[in-house]
């Protein structure tokens, strides 16, 4: 009998820089939204799939079908615990996909929902998640129209994993993507950062910070529509989830070949989040958010867009936090409160794994 072929992957054959070659096995950082995730996508998945649409690396893909421009996105949710202050895995599954569509300027319309269940999970737990998905979809104005269910052996899952995909319609004249950032653009964040990641951590680790922190999970399509009503010429929108605000800004800087100067004191960080991060040695810029967006807006439109955001329920604390510049292309630099500067690099992995 002939020897079976060696099916082990040849890592030396990959066209890939470090640190991916240093990790012949998947590690938690590969799912953290940082440098490891980016290299896995760019040097393993993209060569396997190909295509110009995928190469755009937006929160959702903009595709044409029957004369219409559609946004299409998919995401999986493995958060632990399943239920936390301010939301649940069900809320994240809906809001996360709705927000990915909205970051292309699309009006979200339809979702699919797939459950991967661990054998032995209480049916009542699955019911709670399903109801949360239905309620979140109603609040977001979308319909769940198809789905799937699979069950894995006990010990080979973590009760409930959820995958959602979504489609939405992109209005004519809207072209929002990370490659459109330009020097002079004003950088705006829609509200305080870090709440989701710290809320998850407090429940998971049993930590108390004097006040109960709640996740900021929320659908952002309505906020985006309010911004587009001011001008369709929004250059970039991004929801800073895994890897936080720092990862989102680095991705935009790299995609557009521009630099970003961040005014550190202007970034709205709630006091409990700042205190928790100081206690735990974390940087709020890298903590995940689930109901915030960062926008790159041409300077001439920045003030009216900011005003529109502040009058929307999901943006009353929107703030200008920096600018896009021609210097140091592909890099994000923060001006500190002491008058110095520091490089805000792409994180290697995720400070807090399993947050979405």
From TrEMBL:
PurM-like N-terminal domain location: 59-170
Sequence ranges assigned to domain PurM-like C-terminal in this UniProt record: 182-328
Pfam families: AIRS (PF00586), AIRS_C (PF02769)
InterPro entries: HypE, PurM-like_C_dom, PurM-like_C_sf, PurM-like_N, PurM-like_N_sf
CDD domains linked to this entry: HypE
Homology family: Belongs to the HypE family.
Protein known as: Hydrogenase expression/formation protein HypE
Taxonomic source organism: Streptomyces sannanensis
Organism classification: Bacteria, Bacillati, Actinomycetota, Actinomycetes, Kitasatosporales
């Amino acid at each position: 009998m002939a020897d079976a072929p060696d099916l082990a992957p040849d890592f030396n054959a990959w066209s890939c820089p470090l640190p991916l070659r240093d990790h012949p096995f998947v590690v938690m950082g590969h799912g953290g939204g940082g440098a490891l995730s980016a290299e896995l996508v760019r040097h393993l998945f993209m060569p396997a799939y190909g295509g110009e649409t995928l190469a755009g690396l937006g929160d959702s893909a903009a595709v044409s079908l029957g004369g219409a421009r559609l946004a299409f996105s998919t995401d999986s949710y493995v958060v632990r615990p399943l239920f936390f202050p301010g939301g649940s895995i069900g809320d994240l599954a809906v809001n996360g996909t709705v927000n990915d569509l909205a970051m292309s300027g699309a009006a979200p319309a339809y979702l699919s929902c797939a459950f991967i269940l661990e054998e032995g999970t209480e049916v009542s737990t699955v019911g709670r998640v399903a109801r949360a998905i239905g309620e979140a979809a109603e609040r977001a104005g979308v319909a769940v129209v198809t789905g799937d269910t699979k069950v894995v052996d006990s010990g080979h899952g973590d009760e409930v994993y959820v995958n959602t995909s979504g489609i939405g319609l992109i209005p004519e004249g809207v072209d929002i993507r990370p490659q459109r950032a330009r020097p002079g653009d004003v950088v705006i964040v829609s509200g305080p950062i870090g709440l989701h990641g710290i809320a998850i951590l407090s429940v998971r680790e049993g930590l108390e910070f004097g006040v109960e922190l709640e996740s900021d999970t929320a659908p952002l399509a309505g906020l985006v529509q309010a911004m587009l009503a001011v001008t369709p010429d929004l250059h970039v929108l991004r929801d800073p989830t895994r890897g936080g605000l720092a990862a989102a800004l680095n991705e935009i800087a790299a995609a557009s070949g521009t630099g970003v100067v961040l005014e550190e004191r202007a970034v709205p960080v709630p006091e409990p989040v700042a205190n928790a991060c100081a206690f735990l040695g974390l940087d709020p810029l890298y903590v995940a958010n689930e109901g915030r967006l960062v926008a790159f807006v041409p300077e001439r439109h920045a003030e009216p867009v900011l005003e529109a955001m502040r009058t929307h329920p999901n943006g009353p604390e929107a703030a200008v936090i920096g600018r896009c510049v021609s210097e140091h292309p592909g890099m994000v630099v923060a001006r500190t409160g002491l008058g110095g500067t520091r490089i805000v690099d792409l994180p290697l992995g995720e400070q807090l794994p399993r947050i979405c």
